[in-house]
Structures are given as C-alpha cells and as structure tokens.
Amino acid sequence: MDKSGTFKTLIAHLRPHKTVPVTPWRAQHRWDLSLSRVLILFIGLAIFGFGDALVVQSNLGNAPWTVFAQGLSLKLGLSLGWATFFTGCGVLLIWIPLRERPGFGTLSNIAIISTTIQLGVDRFPLQSTFLGGLASALLGIALVGVGSALYITCGLGPGPRDGAMTGIHNMTGIRVGRVRMGIEVTVLAIGWLLGGKIGIGTALFALLIGQSVAISFGVVARLTSK
Questions:
Q1: CA trace torsion 151, 157, 161, 167 (10° rounding)
Q2: Most exposed among 31, 96, 151, 220, judged by the fewest C-beta atoms under 10 Å?
Q3: 3-state SS class at 148
C-alpha cells in the first residue's frame, strides 16, 4: 500500500463516532460486574487520570474541573489527588436531590481518577517550554478521550459530573449542552478565583475534548464490530 493509501486508512480509522458504541463488554445494569468488564473500566479510568495529569503538567492551564480541584488544593493544603477525590464526593451529594443512583463505575471513577491524577503529577515532568507544554497538553487530551471511551462503554454508571449534568437536565428540562456549559463555566470561574491555573491548555481542552472522545468512540466501535 502506498503512502496515500496508508494515510486514507488511518483517517478512516480515526473517523469520529456520533453515538456511544455498543461493545461486547457493555453491562446490562450499573452493578453487572465481570472480571473483563471491571478490568476495562479500571484501565479506562486510569488512562483518563494520567491524561488529565499530563494536561496539568503541561503548565499551560488545566481542564475546568481540575482548575477547581487545584484551587481547592491550594486553599485547603491538600494534594491535587485528594482535592479531586473530595470534589467528586461533593458532586455525588448533588445526586441525592436529583434522584440519581450511582453505579460501580461512578464510585470507581472517583477513586481511580483521583489516584492516577496524583501519580501522574508526581511522576510526569512539569514542562518549562511552550512546545513541550503543548505536546503534553495534546497527548493528555487524547488520553482523556481514550479513557472516557473505555469507561463509558462499560455501562457501569456515569462519573459524578456527568450524572449531575444529566440529573439537572432531567429535572429542569434545560438542554444537556447548556447544562454542561453552565457547570463547566461555573467551576472554572470558582477554581480560577481560588488560584487554579487557566491558560491555553484550558482552551485546548474545551475545544478538543469532545472530538477526542468521539474519535475514541469510533476506534472502539470499529475494533469491536463483527
């Protein structure tokens, strides 16, 4: 195959998917556990956490929720991992009036992402140049997309933030996109006021994360199609 054909094949494999694909490992309900399904869930959440850590270490600005967690960590003297953990637990409390029910994936989301973000921040180098930071941020966004695709397709329950978004949508009737935007802007503003870092990395995350997840969904769908 010539270079042109190889490039076209690569582009075809990276074509975004419009919906959440149905995978062989998808659960029937939020507590439908199997060894392979839980393993895929944990791998996906770990990839997500390490990706978020790369965005942090890019030194160009964080994802909105990590801006909030970082600001919280600075004010309370916590590590970023613990601040992320407590943020997830706090958001989970919002589920009570929204009548949302957590699944195994919801609780795993809080524990594993918090842990792997801290591991990544402790071990990945903090970038000191713009190009190094840009590469770290883009790789991080790509990994967050891959991790999201893996854990979402397990069907073991949304993360705390996604559950709050859908719960508010269901209760108020406000469009999901508007609810998500309102939540993201609010936590970003609060996080910034608390001292969390925003910058071009924050903008890149906002612009590219949706496409990263969609592309990852497409790859998963094509790899698991019969």
A1: 150
A2: 96
A3: helix
What is residue 60's three-state secondary structure? coil
| Number of domains within the chain | 1
Structure tokens at 210: 């949706």
Tokens of 47: 């990839």
Q: Is the dihedral angle over the CA atoms 81, 87, 91, 96 positive or is it negative?
A: positive
Residue 18, in any domain of the structure: no
Longest dimension (CA), the chain: 58
Q: At 94, which amino acid appears?
A: I
Predicted model pTM? 0.92
The domain of 76 spans 24-224
pLDDT tens digits for range 8-59:
665 666 678 778 889 999 999 999 999 999 999 999 999 999 999 999 999 9
Q: Which one-letter amino acid corresponds to residue 129? A: T
Q: Would you state the pLDDT for residue 15?
A: 77
Is 14 contained in some domain? no
